[in-house]
Queue: 2 jobs
Job 1
Amino acid sequence: MRIRLSVLVNNEYGVLSRVANLFAARGYNIESLNVAPTHDEGVSRMTIVVEGEKEIVEQIEKQLNRMVNCLKVINLNDQPAVERELVLIKMHTNDTNRAEILRITDIFRGNIVDLSPESYTIAISGDSGKINAVISLLRSFGIKEIARTGLAALTRELKTN
Amino acid sequence: MKGYNIIVESLKKEGVDTIFGYPGGAIMAIDDALMDEKEIHYILARHEQGATHEADGYARATGKVGVVLATSGPGATNTITGIATAYMDSVPLVVLTGQVPTTLIGNDAFQEADTVGISRPCTKHNFLVKDVTELARTIKEAFYIAKSGKPGPVLIDLPKDVILGESRFVYPKNVKLSGYNPTTKGNPHQIEKVTKALLESKKPLLYIGGGAISSNASGQIAQLANRLQIPVFVTLMGQGAFDPESELFLGMAGMHGTYSSNMAIQNCDFLFSLGARFDDRITGKLDEFAARAKIAHIDVDPVSIGKNVITEYPIVGDLKNVLDQILEVMERIAEPVDFYKSKYKKWLETVNRWKTEHRLDYKKNPDVIKPQQAISCLSDILAGKNPIIAVGVGQHQMWAPQYMKLSRPRSFLTSGGLGTMGYGLPAAIGAQTAYKDRIVVDIDGDGSFQMNIQELATIVQEKLKLKIMIINNRYLGMVRQWQNLFFNNRYAHTDMTFQPDFVKVADAYGIEAGRVSKPDELNKAIRTMVEYDGAYLLDVIVDRLENVYPMVPSGAPLDRMILV
């Protein structure tokens, strides 16, 4: 199953490698990984998306908890969370497709953040489903390059169903 | 103060009295600082793997943190097998490795290796010290991490410019690690629950692992077992944690465990794991392991709980503390001893019947020494002498716990988890260094012995009175046994007929030695070894084709043992 973990770690060298190794040692491929400092400079949040067996990932969670420079592990599959991803998509453009690309960008509430006579670079944020949808819609117009941030997520405060 | 002096002063603050090491370019300033140091004894190994196992043997025998000092590059990589060995068996080590100067890291400099990268998966934690001002704090943290919670090896990588740097020396009083707070006491609610379940069970069984040794809990375990009159078995790592003469004691369980232990596991209704981790060498086929039992598990490491078996009663905490808590609850709610004597009478009778039905046994032969016979004989001669036994890996590693009566914790040193051949000799050296007056015997295989044979020089240099008893069958016996049972007697690459004359090897190092091959001379030969006032190597030529039994074939359930 697809498992999303939010992990607070000390903002130090070697931590990323340590975390990644727990997955690599089992032959698990990390689907996406987002790391950046939090409001506390000494602490970084990692959001990890990985495909794996539930029991094995539970084992990895325990091992993360055991790590000296890991502060907290939250399994986002267990609780409601807000999730966002940002994608930058560089499109091949010409006179016939510019209008349609712009329209799709508008519908998905994206912005054109860079342009040239032959290209648009679009920035769109949303959950992974939305990002996947916009990529599949734009694909036929000719995507030049893509950069995705991977998932960033926080748990919701009000745990209503 | 200079970096190298900060290191030495910090080690002294941690109470380090012995360092095992091997010098080299990147760390020679630390060696230099240690040369005139009175409080710390430096032991020069002959290989960094030897140094690491020596520190490991020292740590296991004493309960203190073992310290290793090795240089950068090959010095550091040579420690890795020793570190991985300690990691698997939860042995506290602090390994100090030299590193090329910070400005050269990543440049493929001479004797450079990515030591923190290489050691990361086999250390509890590791550090690269990038600034001399961080040295003291890092060493403080390393010792704290190594010995607290589930103990383990911690590596500190020390670039040459940091070692030579200059800073004010202030040794921190406390450690602040916000992400590291090992649980020491058990949850009181869980303690209450597990105690009730234990008292209500009809066929309880205690399962004692290495955690009992590392948390010094054997007193509490004896109290618990005796109070309730319930049987006990140990793992390879739990040897010495329970009195082998007690009628409650079943011996070792698992692949080469006793019939009674394995049968008790398969038939008990409450299996209480005390610092053991349900290793595959213990459980046999998992689905059929202790299928009739509810399982309770005390472990300081939450990762070990519920990893292999479904655990009804998990308790995270230091075993000794948790058992104190359980004994306290028991005093409040348990019936008097006589009640349990009669309650568990039938269960104990059943277990004792298994004990007498199939005792550990072997067939003697008047012409050739049986390996079991040699170990039994050593055990008899050492009775009451409080020995420390170290072993290598293979058949002799199984015969030793089967036939040695080990009645004290920290008296049996073995690479249980990683199964590192060549562990025995250096581990014995480490233990002997700490206990100069106790008798320390390395019971070794001829294969294992050759893997760290260079450490004979360390024995001589340190004037240790270490005894080495080689169970010599000129085979890699355990693999040969598997070839015998599962590979149609094709002894691929296990025949070690060519070997040096070990007596002459010992002689070349200046170590007294003898050889024995006749059963009627065995007792005298072992006695000579034990009584000799100095290091002694005894080469015991044994039956080449003896197998270790009982044996549960890999992947079979525990009650399907091959008995003899």
Note: The longest helix of chain B spans residues 48-62.
Job 2
Amino acid sequence: MLGMKRRRLFMWLMAEDFYSGTMALVIGLPVAVFLSEMISLITAKLIGLGIIGHRFTLSVEGLALTVIGFLGIKLAANILLSFKIIKREPYRLMHDTQEEKLKIVNEKRSLGMLVFGILFLAIAYAMAIVGISWENLQYFGFTLVLGVLGTFLLIKGFCAIFSKLIKNRKGKEELHMFTFRQLQENVFLRSGALTISSLLVLVAIACMSYGISVAVTNLQNGNRHNMDFTFEQYDEESGKNIRNLMEQEKTKELIADWRGIRVTYLPTRNLWEEDTDRKTCEYDTTSMKQAAGNLSQEQRDILENINIYRDDLHMIDLSGINEILKNQGKEPLSLEEGELFVYIDPEVYGAEEKKTFDSYLQYHPKMLIDDEEYVIKAVCSFDIVVDRSITIGFGIVLPDELFDRYADEDNIYTYWNVWLSKSLIEEKGLMQAVMEGNRYFSGSGLEFENYLQNMGRQVFYVVAASYLTIYLALIFLIIANTVISLLYLMQEKKTKRRYHTLIRLGSTYEKIWASAKRQIKWYFGVPLGAAFVSGIFGVYSLFSGILPSNVRGQGLMLILIAVIVMIILCVVECAYVKMVMHISRENIVQMMEIRRIE
Amino acid sequence: MKQKILEVQALYKEYGKKENITKALNGLSCSVMEGEFLGIMGSSGSGKTTLLNCIATMISPTKGKILLKGEDISGFKGGKLAEYRGNEIGYLFQDFELLDNLTGRENIMLPMAIHGETGEPESLEQLAGYLEIAEVLDKFPAQMSGGQKQRVAAARALILKPALILADEPTVALDSKNAKSLMDKLAGLNENQNTTIMMVTHDGNAASYCSRILFIQDGIIFHELRRNPEEESQQDFYKRIIAVMAQLGGGSANVY
């Protein structure tokens, strides 16, 4: 109004934005570092590492990337926002005319948007549920674009159609027309901000339901702790060194037991194709394939996925397995003549695979090794080493005499598992005891693994798959709720004069409050309703697409937890809406007491 | 025999605290008769808008009584207060106070909706015709001229046929042509439909439409002018108004 140039005004606004951004970084970064350290400390304490064992680390590169990312997003947002308004006079921007606010609704166009919105969303969710979206990044991006676009069109179309319906409906409320116009101005024809909020709530619902379900199921599955250390004997010399170390007095004080487990490949011809002088044996899976014929296609696919007909089959000796079981206080396994166990890796395959294999065993699948027939008696699925010295997707467990009969002597690996003394664990706790053992064994110069590595990896998986999603969900939920409530309360403040006029015209508190309540319900109802409906499909998509293997096959439990989480989120959102209603009611009560401006 | 619609008895209104007290009304008493067009004039800060706001129940007086048809309005609360604001008085604001997101028709119908009256009354069409706003009934305020806005606001104030119209400087935001048009319409309503109007104004010309004018200074009535239309022309009455205003040291002498 006073003649300031657009360029100067723009520079002012950008400078103000840059200042607020810098302040946010100056305050936010130390707080973020502090919070992440607090989380690390709590995690360290919870898993038994102890606060002393925790080390503070700060990545300068990480900090720099955060600053660059933050400023980059702000710049991109500013460019996007400026693009639409760059050529408009500042005065016009601040005073939207009513014609712009209340554009005429084209019914056909709105209906088209609604139909296309539903269609796009249906395609996006179908792609995600069937699994196409998770195949590669392009499909995932395409699903994401369809989903976002579908949500925009759905909400816009829905609002426009509802705008027509509500206008023509004779409401019971006295301020029906006022309420409708308020809704039309702030919800029905301005659905962009609400759609973004809806998408944020959707992400929050999906992340929260998925994260908590996976976390709870993970916790229920418990930690796999079968031994404390594993030493790998890859040749005679390393075996000798391991034995020497284990027989030292100091070691004997530290450990309760140490036992070996032998692993080798079944030496089929395919394995030694180029070295035919070595010991070989015949291996045939025809009977296994015949037995699998009794299963459903889905079950057969799971077996194929485990790769049970592979030629490079691992063999594990039964006594090694039984030593592990014995140290865990469990009953040893036994095999009759002509029987064997199969082994599947618990880290790769979960309950679903085990269940399928159990069904498979009903049909008595058999293996032929050197024309000897062996019936698969059962499935073993537990860790045979402490971490990842060896990973066996699928193998067989044979009694020691059979193992020796088929194994190529030069190709046997022994993994020496070590169990710490119970008194040490009781005295110091498992993690501290393992750390002490780790310090001691490190001095030997031998290669070994410890339980901390396994535990660390499991914690990482849990954190990555669940805690991170819960954290993201909370952030998105807070942002979305803040945006919706601020939008409403700001527009209520901005249109305070309208409420004053209503009061002057004799409107009672009850009538104004009824109108405000209806506005709040719509204001929150549109984005939250859309988010919760989409959330059901979103969570289902995540479960079908990116479920960690260790919780697969526990679908019912996961869905049950997800439903509970969604109900809790519903309650939280209702409480939040109630809170906004309370603030709005206080505003209205204040407005009812009109005072002279002195 | 004309009835007394409104009676103000020894009205006081004080603003501020003990050390810095401002007496906007200082024991003012007056009355409005049925079918009267009463003007309230005075310099800025004399208390005229305070008086109007007290009658409109926008502010509470410090002391004194306001009786509408013999009933003390200070005891009105909740539904009764809303009923009074909506049905007994119609308020014409200087800056129109139209709701910018409602059309002209919706603005006019708003008091009806607030007071639970359904349907579109015949009086809406009649009022629209009389106030020459039929063509803007379906437009938003942003699409209307200042004069049209004020006439829509007048229709809104009149739609429930209240006992008393309170007009707070209704011509202040209008050009002389629109101001004259509005005053002609208000005077016509007063004359033909016996509408009682109480108007606060600075404007001598607008005031010349009134049948009686109270001049306020320092919160009390300083002077009173009456006009008998059969004996005195509007122009002569205007001259007398200007003379009193000169004594008060304020007011404007717009010529329509």
Note: Strands of chain A lie at 229-233, 255-265, 283-284, 314-317, 339-344, 366-369, 372-380, 394-398, 413-420, 448-450.
